[in-house]
Each structure stands twice: as C-alpha cells, then as structure tokens.
Amino acid sequence: MLYPNIRKQDPEIAGHLDQELKRQRDGLVMIPSENFASPSVLEAAGTVLTNKYAEGYPEKRYYTGNEFIDKIEQLAIDRAKKLFSAEHANVQPHSGSGANMECYAAVLKPGDTILGMDLAHGGHLTHGHPVNFSGQTYKFINYGVQKETERIDMDQVREIALKEKPKVLLSGATAYPRIIDFDAFASIAKEIGAYAMADISHIVGLCLSGDHPNPVPSHDIVMTTTTKTLRGPRSAIILSKIEDRINPDDKKNLAKKIDSQVFPGMQGGPLEHIIAAKAVAFEEALKPEFKEYQNQIARNAKQLAETLSENGLRLVSGGTDNHLILIDLTETGIGGKDGANALEESGIYTNFNMIPFDTRKPFNPSGIRLGTPALTSRRMKEKEMKTIGNWIATVLKDINNEELKAKTKQEVLDLTHSFPLYEEL
Ligand SMILES: Cc1ncc(COP(=O)(O)O)c(C=O)c1O
User: Fold this and answer.
1) Whole-angstrom Cα distance, residue 147 to residue 145?
2) Residue 425 pLDDT more than 90?
C-alpha cells in the first residue's frame, strides 16, 4: 500500500496524493517542463536525508555527522561532472531560479549588463523580467527571434553584443523549439570579453544525447534544472569552468565564486535528500538507454508537430528540433488559455504561452506550449503522437463542444491505461 503512515495519520493529505497519482496516470502530461521521475528518484527524494543539516561542502561542513552525506553529495558531483564533461559541478541549488541568481551573483554586480533572450520570444522569467529579481537587479538587454523565421539570428546577437558589451552573454530559453547554436554564442562572448553562460534547463537531456550541442565545453557557466528532459527531482545544478577566464587575477577562481554564491551567498543547508535523488538521476542518465530515450523524445515531438500542422494548426517556426512545440492559435480565433483549458477538460495537460510578437496579453496569450518528455517516459511513440495530435487539433477547433471533450477524455483514458505509469508503486 502506498503511504501507509500518511494514510493512517493524515488521511486528508493521503487522499489528495492518491488523486494526484490518478490524475498523472489517467491524463496526457504534455507540459514540456514536466516529466515522470523514475521510482528510484522518487524513493531517494523521500529518504531520511531530509533530517540532516549539512551547511558547507563535502569535507568542509559546519555540522558534524556528515560521513555518509558527504559520500552521497560527492557521488552527485562526480556523476554530474562525468555526465556533462564538466570541470566543476555544484549540485546544491534548490531550484532553477535560485541557480540563475547564484550564477549571476558569482560574476556580476548589481546594475551590470546581461544580454539574454527576450522573454516575449521564449526567454525565462529569470532572464530579466521586470517582476523578477533578475530584471530588478541587473540591466538586461535582449536579442529575439527574426519575425519571418521565428528563429534566433546569430548575426543580430553579435551586432547587439558588440554594441552593448554585456558582461554576461546568456543563451537558453523556456519556449524555443529550435536548436541553439551554443558555439556561436561562446565565440561572440569571447570576442567581446564576456562570460558565456547557458541555461539548458529545458533541453538538457537532448544536449547529453547529442540531439543538440552540449554547451559545457565552450561555456564558462552552464545551469540546468534537473526536472525536465533530465527526469530528475525538482531541483537544479551549476556546471562551470574552474578558472575565471575574464578575471583571472581575482583571489577566487570561477568555481569558488559559484560555490560561495550558492552557500553561504544565497542558500543555507542543502537539501541532501534531493541531492541523493539528483545522484540517482545522473546515474540513470549515464546509461546507454538514456540516449535512446532522448532520441525518442525528439522523434515524438517531430511527429506530433507534423500531425498538428497537417490538421491546419500553425506552429511557431514551422515545427520543432527539440522536445517542445508552440502552437499559434491566432487563426483559430481563440486564446491560449481557452485552448489549454479545453484540452485539460479532455484529459490533456499543456500550458498557455506567449508567442513571438504576440498581440494578446500574457493571461490569455496566442500560444499553447506542449511537449513530449513525459509521454516518452511512458514509452509512447510516433503512432501515439499521431493519435494525440489529431485529438488536440480537433478539440482546439471546437473548444465549446462538451460532448467532444468528454469523448476525447474517455479516449485518452483508454490510451493511458495501455501505457501504465508507476506500476511498481
Ligand atoms: C529556462 C529555464 N530556466 C530556469 C527555470 C526555473 O526553474 P525553477 O522553476 O526550478 O525555479 C525554468 C523553469 O521552468 C526554465 O525553463
């Protein structure tokens, strides 16, 4: 039986946990930042390590009793370094937003300039939104996508970089369906004497499998969440070079600057149970099957994009090279929120999103963002993507048809039941 102790002691929470597991099993999780961590990752996240305070780093703690904690954190570090071919890894950041804060603070002072992707074109909140710490602390300037191609134009990035001379050139996005030319970013950063930083939170798995380039060798700092294509726990890590290429004479090298911004700069005691879960996820990602899994994520996204297009839906940039797709609903006359809600009523979970040059407001923008990592974890393939793509297109063209949504929900249920989730739980 699942959660026997919670069930006895706190039936209210146990009931909600049961319902959430059922929701994840019964529906189609297509939010591209979500995935199903393996049972081993879930187990590690629920261990007694949650009881331990371990401020500091392995062998350099401010508390006693870290004999085994140190071994676990060191394994997480060693596995992360091996996985990404990184010189240095900090596995303590609690989340992606915190990790970005720590990276910026390691190499910048408040008011310094960062050149990053326009949020309206696919950048993340922590890449300079005015309501976020990033936009409030640093001076962000943006590059975007070209209007005709809806892709990043590296000539434009270089032009802005040469003019504005940012201290950090930031690549990475939260809603960009195409390959990012990390080598070109690194070479522009070198040309202008800026730190090259990449936030690969979304595409991390594809960078590891070779579907996309891995920015770690060419970049000073690479940050990633461990949740999305990586299938780890809700958390993040920072990878970096050891030496500070831009300020080699500083007392601290780059690795030390990052470590001291994570702790004691921004965080206190690390979440060692989550670090153990990250270590387990890294071990899984080091296995050959992980590469095949990532290849399938990309193949599934391509098939899904093709089916949606065949059904007359316009996709931003015309398709996808990664795990996610942005549907532009402008021609259907509905908003992204209306579309995403209708899909939810049909058992399909996506999220509404701005598209480049959006004319609508963020609370009901023109786009729907959806992706394939979680469905691929359930072992769905191109055949299922065709079926699902047809369902999505049919619902989006008739969002007020209650009968259609109920029928689709039943079809979704039939499909998900033939791709069992967490049978071992
Ligand atoms: C590109 C990117 N960076 C950072 C983050 C922030 O991660 P978190 O939600 O863990 O704070 C996200 C989250 O979706 C993201 O997509």
Assistant:
1) 6
2) no
Nearest to 212 by CA among 120, 317, 93, 301: 301
Assess whether 199 carries a catalytic annotation.
yes
* 0.90 surpassed by pTM: yes
Task: Please state, in angstroms and rounded to a whole number, the distance separating the CA atoms of residues 97 and 95.
Answer: 6
Is 234 designated active site? Answer: yes
Q: Does residue 130 have a cis bond before it (omega within 30 degrees)?
A: no
pLDDT for 230: 98
Question: Residues with Cβ < 8 Å from 119, sequence gap 6 or more?
Answer: 125, 127, 128, 129, 142, 354
Residue 14 tokens read as: 């146990």
CATH no., domain 43-285? 3.40.640.10
pLDDT tens for each residue of 210-243: 999 999 999 999 999 999 999 999 999 999 999 9
Residue 78 has pLDDT above 90, yes or no: yes
* Collapsed DSSP state (helix, strand, coil) of residue 169: strand
21 falls in which pLDDT band (50, 70, 90)?
A: very high
Helices (H) and strands (E) in the chain, counts: 16, 15
How far apart CA 160 and CA 142 sit, in angstroms, is 8
Judge whether 250 counts as a catalytic residue: no
DSSP H helical segments within 46-153, as ranges?
67-84, 96-107, 133-137
Fold of 289-417: Aspartate Aminotransferase, domain 1 (3.90.1150)
User: Relative to the CA of 97, which ligand 1 atom is closest?
Assistant: 11
Confidence of residue 170 (pLDDT cuts 50, 70, 90): very high
Of 396, 333, 337, 403, nearest to 365 by C-alpha is: 337
Residues 366, 368, 370, CA angle at the centre, nearest 5°? 160
Q: For residue 16, what are its two tokens?
A: 């909600």
Residue range 138-147: average pLDDT?
97
CA angle 415/418/423 to nearest 5° reads 130
With a 6 A CB cut-off, is 229 part of the ligand 1 pocket? Answer: no
Instruction: Return the residue whose CA atom lies nearest to atom 8 of ligand 1.
Output: 96
Q: How many Å apart are CA 374 and CA 33, to the nearest integer? A: 9
Portions of the chain given CATH number 3.40.640.10: 43-285
CA-based nearest residue to 90, from 104, 80, 98, 101: 80
Provide the pLDDT for residue 357: 96
Counting residues of the chain whose pLDDT is more than 70, the rounded percentage is 100
Residue nearest ligand 1's atom 6 by CA: 96
Ligand 1: centre distance to CA 101 (Å): 11
What is the residue-averaged pLDDT of the chain?
A: 97
